[in-house]
Amino acid sequence: MRIKHLIAVALLVTSALTATAQNNNRQLSNGMEEIVLDNILARTSIRSYQDRPVEQDKIEKLLRAGMAAPSAVDKRPWHFIVVTDKQVLNGLAQANPNAGMAARAPLAIVVCGDKTKALTRVPDYWVQDASAATQNILLAAQGMGLGAVWTGTYPVTDRVEKVALALNLPEHIVPFCTIVIGYPEKYQAPKDKWDEGNISYNTYGGKKPDAIEPERTFHEFTVTEDFLLNPFNYFSQPGGMLVCAGNKEKSNAMTIGWGALGNLWGHGTSTVTVYVAEKRFTRQFMEDNEYFTIMTFKDRDVLRYMGTKSGRDGDKAAALGLHVAYTENGTPYYQEAECVIECKTMYSQEFDPKHFRDDVPRDFYDGFSAGFHAFYIGKIVKALKK
């Protein structure tokens, strides 16, 4: 009996450890996914640099990243020329009109193709292999806090000859591009390059298949009367939550992390208070419409996109593939949300800094370009949960 008991205990402990490990792996995987995607989306071309050398250990990491790229039949037909000498950097700047910033940079890596290592039956595949290596280096530079820019050389014959001369390259080594690298002189916001017009599904011009099954998803909301929430942590949802306002013609949503739940003016009037800065695109929708909704989402990519993109630049809901629905009052919300609270605005007012007391971080607004916040107190009209 004792042996059986010990075996049972061991199995229970093993199961618990396995479940914990699987959960930790899922959390780690989710975290890594965000880190990788954020790094890719944050990459941008940097052409001005601080007067500061790039450390040798970072240079080696950049080269390791380049050599980790895929290549046809694993031939790895690349060669990397690391340039830190000012005279050679000047020579690269003169050899390629697009690489003029190399003269003011501490580092350049010239990615080359080695024709002796190229795939015999399709030798020009080395161009794709060198491209993959170049992108790896650019992303690694972004991840290490460096700035970099890809300047093309091949297949422009004049540039190829001049760069080869500047680097004393043998005939079988072809300069593909020059990556100019350094510590960025100033921050440069990345461009939003997402364009659904560049996408087809299954065949050219094919439309995106419906990713949501309406009968399964669109009818999962239920109206709840018993909606007990902890007001102290409700607005601390991971990644924030959304506030949305507008009508059936036009609406907009943004991510919020500030808010309050409470009771105001008696008679069981449950309320939500949200804060929207002056220059946010959503602000005018809050002013022009009597109702608004707040929503929680499990998908943090939705929250991140809504918080970093402006509705002035396009329909954010459409870009995310969200489906807009409307309450009986015509208040917009998204059918992919987990929870929706519809509110009717009872009072709104912009912060007046002359009324700030000692504990208000007054310096918050010194570098805050979006202007002062207005707060909106909304009476809870309806709560929908899945």
Distance between the termini: 48 Å
* Count of beta strands: 14
Average pLDDT value? Answer: 87
Series of H and E elements = HHEHEHEHEHEEEEEHEHHEEEE
Amount of helix: 25-40%
Characterization of the model:
It contains nine helices and 14 strands. The protein has helices at 2-42, 56-67, 86-95, 126-143, 157-167, 214-217, 281-288, 300-308, 316-320, and strands spanning 78-83, 107-114, 147-152, 173-182, 222-223, 241-246, 251-256, 260-263, 270-277, 291-296, 324-326, 332-334, 339-350, 373-385. Strands 5, 6, 7, 8, 9, 10, 13 and 14 form an eight-stranded antiparallel β-sheet that branches. Mean pLDDT is 87; it is low at 1-19 and 212-219.
Task: Detail the topology: elements first, then pairings.
Layout (H helix, E strand, L loop, with lengths): L1 H41 L13 H12 L10 E6 L2 H10 L11 E8 L11 H18 L3 E6 L4 H11 L5 E10 L31 H4 L4 E2 L17 E6 L4 E6 L3 E4 L6 E8 L3 H8 L2 E6 L3 H9 L7 H5 L3 E3 L5 E3 L4 E12 L22 E13 L1
Antiparallel strand pairs: 1-2, 2-4, 3-4, 5-14, 6-7, 6-10, 8-9, 9-14, 10-13, 11-12, 13-14
Summarize the model shown.
This protein is of the alpha+beta class. Helix content is 31%, strand content 24%.
Record keyword descriptors for this entry.
14 strands, alpha+beta, disordered N terminus, 24% strand, 386 residues
